[in-house]
From TrEMBL:
This is dCMP deaminase. It comes from Mizuhopecten yessoensis. The lineage of its organism: Eukaryota, Metazoa, Spiralia, Lophotrochozoa, Mollusca. Belongs to the cytidine and deoxycytidylate deaminase family. One of its GO terms (molecular function) is dCMP deaminase activity. The keyword Transcription regulation does not apply. Zn(2+) binds at H89, C115, C118.
Length: 159
């Protein structure tokens, strides 16, 4: 039997496609607790940056040099054993890995809503829109609210 000659219509949307790529990227993360992925897309619907959360480059991650835990205690050498001191967020990595000098107006798809530090980067690089998959609900320190405020004030669409 020959295949159909008319086009297939039941395909995934651009939004599903780019968020799907962000979700796939998150699966590279070695964080035992939370895996996040981010995908930056330009106005021509080309992917210009990908990232997931992990420790900085060139630090071997198989011999526990840095902690994956969230303790406020210090180890024998006086280093606080909290991953937050070391992890590069998915959004930051997607920006650092960008393939294009100028990402003004681009859209970032992220599997988790951005923190205030990543929001600062998103503002500085003048992205136009941030689309998140899951929203961070716990916000004791006000990081996510601060991120939203920056997006609002900078005119960055946030959905
Ligand atoms: N938007 C985000 N992008 C990220 O890459 N992360 C990373 C940082 C940590 O590696 C992990 C959060 O760990 P936990 O607090 O749920 O155990 O996710 C976290 C957030 C939330 O702000
Ligand atoms: Zn962040």
């Amino acid at each position: 039997m020959k295949g159909s000659e008319s086009k297939k219509n039941d395909i995934i949307s651009w939004e599903e496609y780019f968020m799907g790529v962000a979700l796939l990227s998150s699966r590279r993360s070695k964080d035992p607790n939370t895996q996040v992925g981010a995908c930056i897309v330009n106005k021509f619907k080309r992917i210009v940056g990908l990232g997931y959360n992990g420790f900085p480059d060139n630090i071997p991650d198989n011999d526990n040099k840095l902690p994956w835990g969230k303790s406020s205690e210090k180890d024998a050498e006086g280093y606080v054993q909290h991953k937050g001191l070391y992890v590069c967020h998915a959004e930051m990595n997607a920006i650092v890995n960008k393939l294009s000098v100028d990402i003004t107006g681009c859209t970032m798809y992220t599997t988790l809503s951005p923190c205030n530090e990543c929001a600062k980067l998103i503002c500085q690089l003048r992205l136009g829109k941030v689309v998140y998959y899951e929203r961070k609900t716990e916000d004791k320190e006000g990081k996510y609210k601060a991120a939203e405020k920056m997006f609002k004030e900078a005119g960055i669409e946030w959905v």
